[in-house]
């Protein structure tokens, strides 16, 4: 069976003010695969991720052109389609950032946040989803007795897994991860890597990484950002 | 350290000491000038008694109540308006509207109080008089509306600063979780900025408490504890402005320094609270 294309990017050009970061980029990401994007710092890897879920719209001065389709519920959706709300897109194409960024609320409320914004009021269901997301992020056993504690009191590695759990809570189809292990020590990074391999079975992953060894261990597809464009390496 | 550096340090240190000593010397100055009153009556009598100098009563309770009532109510009126304006400036509206709105608010902070007073005298007082048949129309309500309008821009700017201090990664995290701008504002920005908001409230309270002209021109200036918003009332600041022309040796004249001390202590407490809360906000946003 041919692999299904989950994300299709065509002619994506991205600018910050007058500076062009990406020019006429095209790429395909396969469903259920882990794609890695490598390349030197400041060349637009993170920007590329933000183009996939329209998060660039929140960045002052950013401007994108081109087309990105994501296959959701069996059909391709154009992410820039005005009838496709950015809020829904971002729940289906979730993102985890380089530095852990827990919201200033409890561990439970952090993970429940995407459900709250979706309007989920059923407390029992929310509790179930939060537990599920924390288990999938390998964090449940460490936090199950302190769910009401401020999330910022967790260690760096735990905070990053919490952010992954938050991204997973709304059951996304795609998970974008921007150098998720760069601010962590080797042990915490190892836990996240194992987690990514497990998550690959549930959703499509696009991971920006600096570490070539990590990419070799994890990735099914590898793209490199060079000269304002994206080139497939393997 | 070179000789020149030592000299600069000494000069700056002396300047700092002088700046710190100045407010303290004002308090001592007021204490000395209020002494005739303080030596004739007990502090509790002065703070809880009524104002009737002809009967030998120099209590400033009516003025304290009027000041507190007017400042608190104007704060209650302008809080939701300021929160809304600051929200719009922060990003609930596109930049093409948010930028002019911020400019307008900044411009409004520069309006002299007397402008609000005049607008009140010529527009609000007659309206209140006709609508509520409230005597001359000079009452707490007539002062409350322009005072709320006057502190709204200041409070809006304090709130805007508090919102701007919310770290960007948190906002991006909320956006990435699928929150729309209103959800981000209500569930993430406001809770994160709550200390800054509280500091803005306290500082605005100090501003409202310290205003003289609006209360003097519009509140009616009767030295009585007001029992409603349509009653005439005299604030501490208005009392100072009214009695300042009295005989320098009289006890009435000494009472204005007591009023000054009450205002001084209240606004100092407000400023200290705000300073503490803002320091905590900055520490939190790091």
UniProtKB/TrEMBL annotation, chain A:
UniProt keyword terms in alphabetical order: ATP-binding, Nucleotide-binding, Phosphate transport, Transport
Keyword DNA damage: no
Superkingdom classification of source: Bacteria
GO MF annotations, alphabetized: ATP binding; ATP hydrolysis activity; phosphate transmembrane transporter activity
A Pfam family reported for this protein in Swiss-Prot or TrEMBL: ABC_tran
Database matches in CDD domains: ABC_PstB_phosphate_transporter
SUPFAM superfamilies per UniProt: P-loop containing nucleoside triphosphate hydrolases (SSF52540)
SMART domains in UniProt: AAA
Gene Ontology, cellular component aspect: membrane
PANTHER family: ABC TRANSPORTER I FAMILY MEMBER 17
Designated name of the protein: Phosphate ABC transporter ATP-binding protein, PhoT family
Annotated source species: Desulfacinum hydrothermale DSM 13146
From TrEMBL, chain B:
Keyword entries, A-Z: Cell membrane, Membrane, Phosphate transport, Transmembrane, Transmembrane helix, Transport
Ranges in coiled-coil conformation: none
InterPro entries: MetI-like, MetI-like_sf, Phosphate_Transport_Permease
Transmembrane helix among keywords: yes
Cell location: Cell membrane
Pfam families: BPD_transp_1 (PF00528)
Source taxon at top rank: Bacteria
Its membrane topology: Multi-pass membrane protein
Regions crossing the membrane: 12-38, 113-132, 139-158, 197-219, 253-275
One example of a Gene Ontology biological process annotation: phosphate ion transport
Residues covered by the ABC transmembrane type-1 domain: 64-274
A GO-annotated cellular component: plasma membrane
Main location: membrane
Recorded family membership: Belongs to the binding-protein-dependent transport system permease family. CysTW subfamily.
Name of this protein: Phosphate ABC transporter membrane protein 1, PhoT family
Taxonomic source organism: Desulfacinum hydrothermale DSM 13146
